[in-house]
Write a structure and sequence with these properties.
By secondary structure, the chain is an alpha/beta fold. The protein contains 4 helices and 4 strands, in the order H-E-H-E-H-E-E-H. Helix 2 runs parallel beside helix 3 (91-104). This is VWA3A protein.
Protein backbone atom coordinates (compact mmCIF):
# COMPACT_ATOMS: atom_id res chain seq x y z
CA UNK A 1 0.00 0.00 0.00
CA UNK A 2 2.87 2.39 0.68
CA UNK A 3 3.79 2.32 -3.02
CA UNK A 4 0.50 4.05 -3.86
CA UNK A 5 1.56 7.08 -1.84
CA UNK A 6 4.87 7.51 -3.69
CA UNK A 7 5.37 10.24 -6.26
CA UNK A 8 7.74 10.15 -9.21
CA UNK A 9 10.55 12.66 -8.99
CA UNK A 10 14.21 13.01 -9.74
CA UNK A 11 16.25 12.77 -12.88
CA UNK A 12 17.47 10.12 -15.23
CA UNK A 13 21.00 10.26 -13.87
CA UNK A 14 21.29 6.53 -14.15
CA UNK A 15 25.00 6.25 -13.36
CA UNK A 16 24.64 8.19 -10.13
CA UNK A 17 21.76 6.00 -8.97
CA UNK A 18 23.50 2.79 -10.01
CA UNK A 19 26.74 3.81 -8.28
CA UNK A 20 24.81 4.46 -5.09
CA UNK A 21 23.09 1.10 -5.31
CA UNK A 22 26.18 -0.99 -6.01
CA UNK A 23 28.81 0.92 -4.07
CA UNK A 24 26.80 1.73 -0.96
CA UNK A 25 23.80 -0.57 -0.74
CA UNK A 26 25.67 -3.65 -2.02
CA UNK A 27 28.84 -3.10 0.00
CA UNK A 28 28.38 -6.50 1.69
CA UNK A 29 27.93 -8.24 -1.64
CA UNK A 30 30.70 -10.76 -0.84
CA UNK A 31 28.41 -12.32 1.76
CA UNK A 32 25.63 -13.00 -0.74
CA UNK A 33 25.45 -15.69 -3.38
CA UNK A 34 23.79 -13.48 -5.97
CA UNK A 35 22.17 -10.09 -6.18
CA UNK A 36 19.94 -8.34 -8.63
CA UNK A 37 18.61 -4.90 -9.17
CA UNK A 38 15.45 -3.90 -11.03
CA UNK A 39 15.33 -0.57 -12.79
CA UNK A 40 11.80 0.67 -13.38
CA UNK A 41 11.96 3.47 -15.92
CA UNK A 42 10.06 5.43 -18.55
CA UNK A 43 12.99 6.91 -20.43
CA UNK A 44 16.57 6.71 -21.56
CA UNK A 45 19.39 7.49 -19.09
CA UNK A 46 21.04 10.91 -19.25
CA UNK A 47 24.37 9.24 -20.03
CA UNK A 48 25.38 7.65 -23.33
CA UNK A 49 24.52 3.97 -23.64
CA UNK A 50 28.11 2.80 -24.22
CA UNK A 51 29.23 4.58 -21.02
CA UNK A 52 26.47 2.97 -18.96
CA UNK A 53 27.10 -0.46 -20.53
CA UNK A 54 30.81 -0.27 -19.77
CA UNK A 55 30.17 0.66 -16.14
CA UNK A 56 27.53 -2.06 -15.75
CA UNK A 57 29.84 -4.69 -17.26
CA UNK A 58 32.59 -3.64 -14.84
CA UNK A 59 30.26 -3.74 -11.82
CA UNK A 60 28.88 -7.17 -12.76
CA UNK A 61 32.32 -8.68 -13.26
CA UNK A 62 33.64 -10.55 -10.27
CA UNK A 63 30.39 -11.42 -8.53
CA UNK A 64 26.92 -12.63 -9.39
CA UNK A 65 25.04 -9.39 -9.98
CA UNK A 66 22.37 -8.80 -12.59
CA UNK A 67 20.59 -5.65 -13.64
CA UNK A 68 17.04 -6.13 -14.93
CA UNK A 69 15.15 -3.34 -16.68
CA UNK A 70 11.39 -2.79 -16.83
CA UNK A 71 10.72 -0.06 -19.39
CA UNK A 72 7.25 1.44 -19.35
CA UNK A 73 6.42 3.37 -22.52
CA UNK A 74 4.09 6.22 -21.77
CA UNK A 75 1.83 7.65 -24.44
CA UNK A 76 3.52 10.80 -25.75
CA UNK A 77 2.20 14.05 -24.36
CA UNK A 78 1.12 12.56 -21.01
CA UNK A 79 4.18 13.58 -18.98
CA UNK A 80 2.58 15.34 -16.05
CA UNK A 81 5.90 16.30 -14.46
CA UNK A 82 6.79 18.71 -17.29
CA UNK A 83 10.44 17.83 -16.70
CA UNK A 84 12.45 17.99 -19.90
CA UNK A 85 14.97 15.15 -19.87
CA UNK A 86 18.64 15.88 -20.49
CA UNK A 87 18.58 13.32 -23.29
CA UNK A 88 15.68 12.30 -25.50
CA UNK A 89 15.15 9.11 -27.48
CA UNK A 90 12.16 7.50 -29.14
CA UNK A 91 10.59 4.52 -27.36
CA UNK A 92 12.30 2.11 -29.81
CA UNK A 93 15.71 3.81 -29.32
CA UNK A 94 15.20 3.72 -25.56
CA UNK A 95 14.35 0.01 -25.66
CA UNK A 96 17.41 -0.68 -27.81
CA UNK A 97 19.67 1.19 -25.39
CA UNK A 98 18.35 -0.69 -22.37
CA UNK A 99 18.65 -4.02 -24.16
CA UNK A 100 22.35 -3.26 -24.69
CA UNK A 101 22.78 -2.26 -21.03
CA UNK A 102 20.97 -5.38 -19.81
CA UNK A 103 23.16 -7.61 -21.98
CA UNK A 104 26.23 -6.10 -20.33
CA UNK A 105 24.66 -6.91 -16.95
CA UNK A 106 23.54 -10.48 -17.75
CA UNK A 107 20.04 -9.32 -16.84
CA UNK A 108 16.59 -9.40 -18.36
CA UNK A 109 14.69 -6.77 -20.30
CA UNK A 110 10.94 -6.13 -20.17
CA UNK A 111 9.16 -3.46 -22.22
CA UNK A 112 5.50 -2.73 -21.75
CA UNK A 113 2.98 0.06 -21.98
CA UNK A 114 -0.67 0.78 -21.62
CA UNK A 115 -1.37 -1.38 -24.70
CA UNK A 116 0.36 -4.42 -23.20
CA UNK A 117 3.71 -6.18 -23.44
CA UNK A 118 5.96 -5.14 -26.32
CA UNK A 119 8.91 -7.35 -25.45
CA UNK A 120 10.00 -9.48 -22.51
CA UNK A 121 13.00 -11.75 -22.09
CA UNK A 122 11.00 -13.92 -19.68
CA UNK A 123 8.14 -14.37 -22.13
CA UNK A 124 10.57 -15.05 -24.98
CA UNK A 125 12.22 -17.72 -22.82
CA UNK A 126 8.85 -19.30 -22.01
CA UNK A 127 7.87 -19.25 -25.70
CA UNK A 128 11.17 -20.92 -26.59
CA UNK A 129 10.58 -23.64 -23.99
CA UNK A 130 7.05 -24.18 -25.30
CA UNK A 131 8.37 -24.49 -28.86
CA UNK A 132 10.93 -27.06 -27.72
CA UNK A 133 8.21 -28.99 -25.88
CA UNK A 134 5.98 -28.92 -28.97
CA UNK A 135 8.82 -30.20 -31.17
CA UNK A 136 9.63 -32.94 -28.66
CA UNK A 137 5.96 -33.91 -28.48
CA UNK A 138 5.77 -34.12 -32.27
CA UNK A 139 8.85 -36.34 -32.38
CA UNK A 140 7.37 -38.61 -29.72
CA UNK A 141 4.06 -38.80 -31.60
CA UNK A 142 5.94 -39.68 -34.80
CA UNK A 143 7.92 -42.36 -32.98
CA UNK A 144 4.75 -43.86 -31.45
CA UNK A 145 3.06 -43.88 -34.89
CA UNK A 146 6.04 -45.56 -36.53
CA UNK A 147 6.09 -48.22 -33.77
CA UNK A 148 2.35 -48.84 -34.23
CA UNK A 149 2.83 -49.32 -37.95
CA UNK A 150 5.56 -51.93 -37.36
CA UNK A 151 3.34 -54.11 -35.19
Amino acid sequence: RWVLSLECKGSRNFLSALRRAVEVDFKDRDKHKSQGLYLLTTGIPDQETHTVSAYVAEVCRGFDFQLHVCLFSVVEGTDSSRIIPARYASPRETASAFKEIVQAANGRFHWFGEAGIFESDDIASIMSEMEKAKNYSQKCAFLVESLKQRS
